[in-house]
Amino acid sequence: MAIPFLWPHLKWCWSCKRGCPFALGNDAMSSSGPSDYSTFDGIIDCRSQAAFVQGHLPGSLWLPWPQLRQLQNALPPPGARLLLIEAPTAAVQWLKQQGYAVMSHRWSAVTHSPMQTGLKQGMLFQPSPPLMAMLDQWPRRGRALDMGCGGGRDAVYLARQGWLVNGVDRAQRALDKARALARLYGVCVDWRCCNLRADNCLPTGQFDLILMMRFLLPERFEWMQRHLRPGGRVIVWAFHEEAARPARAQCKTTPEKLMRGFDRLTTITATIASLPDGRPMSLYIGEKA
Predict the structure, then answer these.
(1) Using an 8 Å Cβ cutoff, are 269 and 285 in contact?
(2) pLDDT by residue (tens digit) across 80-101?
(3) Which helix (H) or strand (E) holds 222?
(4) Which of 97, 129, 147, 246 is the most buried (most CB within 10 A)?
């Protein structure tokens, strides 16, 4: 059963309308800036924080080279066009190795452009597209729980939107990256490292939104329904049974199975969509009466 959802409007690819990738072949910084910054998918400023606060290009992300490699979860998907300001050669080379199209400029080459002051960060990373699409149509704010939060993109995105967020994952390394991402954007998320199957793992209380993104734990569906406030929503985005990867069957499901698993909720969306690599995903969004 497929219930209509604005899936065709989700943007999976950062560069599909941008033309061919580009990069300075010798990894050197250019002394003349580009005429149109809108052709870039992101701007990364590698100068000192003090210099960034005094003035930077609007929408820039302050991310010095030592932190850049550690905060890959702050970057857009590989293939994106990035403009780097005062980046060392090592940063340019590393980003190219990750699959990015990179152009590097000196700060003096862009000082003719309009500037922004302060530490307001541009958001370059991409949260889960179904989450962004749902929030565009659902103005509610409140308390959210991200189950299996991984590197924290969805949790940090929600916190930036004004939600009070709990993020839970069993992998300490992933949570370390999530905490670093939250610090970068100056938001507070209550992170918890534990096994989601354990009785004492999940936080207490009621939630307005519960997420399970690229993760599947059907034994927690009943808990999710019980801990959802009236009018609150559950969103599950997991690999479809026909996806070639991952290999484990317990990581996959169908929209029909998700609807049966959340039988106490009103179905808003139950459909199938594909990742950029062609793998099908099952999406379910349900609301508590």
Answers:
(1) yes
(2) 999 999 999 999 999 999 999 9
(3) helix 221-226
(4) 147
- Provide the pLDDT for residue 71: 95
Question: Which domains occur in the chain, in start order?
Answer: 42-109 (3.40.250), 129-288 (3.40.50.150)
What distance lies between CA 11 and its chain's CA centroid?
13
Left (φ > 0), alpha (ψ -120 to 50) or beta: where does 166 sit?
beta
Nearest to 83 by CA among 22, 126, 12: 22
Residue with tokens 């941008």: 18
Query: Above 90 in pLDDT, residue 18?
Result: no
| pLDDT at position 112 | 84
Considering only CA atoms, which of 59, 30, 33, 58 is closest in space to residue 112?
33
Residues β-bridged to residue 286? 234, 267
Please give the model's pTM, rounded to 2 decimal places. 0.88
Amino acid identity at 48: S
